[in-house]
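Section 4.2 – Deliverable D4.2 (structural model, holo form)

The reporting period included a commitment to supply a predicted holo structure for the target in complex with zinc ion. Inputs used:
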Amino acid sequence: MAGLEDLYREIILDHYRSPRNRGELPTPPAVRAEGHNPLCGDEITVFIDVDDSEGEGVVRDVKVSGQGCSISQSSASMMSQAVIGKSVPEVLAVVKRFKGMMSLDTGNDDDTGADEPTIGTGGDGAEHPLGDLEALQGVVKFPVRIKCATLAWNTLLEALDQ
Ligand code: ZN
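Output (structure tokens):
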């Protein structure tokens, strides 16, 4: 078990040291939302550019800026990777799935389990449907840090609402 936790720590630190999709996008066309976790001092700004020229919107690009602890920043980096190129309904499904992983009452969610999107390339994500995001599941053991991990995701939802 220690081996797996070491791996997860490595993944989190990698995203923290080399955050993906860091920066800003011009608004408009992108929209921006800010999230703040006063418990820890984490700040996240999410820029999201949704192409809704045809039917359901597709996330064309996401950029993240902000500062905070390793959990909040690595989660934001993983979030950006997880949603670029996905349709809005797919993004909402990923958010739901991630927040499900981050909630303490797991085990009995009412998801059908069918048609759930995978993260990453190809369709071979069945074993690890959340990819790197699974590295954050250890955070559930530390309730204070759950808000760090979900901050970027709640901010993303706020941006999508606009
Ligand atoms: Zn934090």
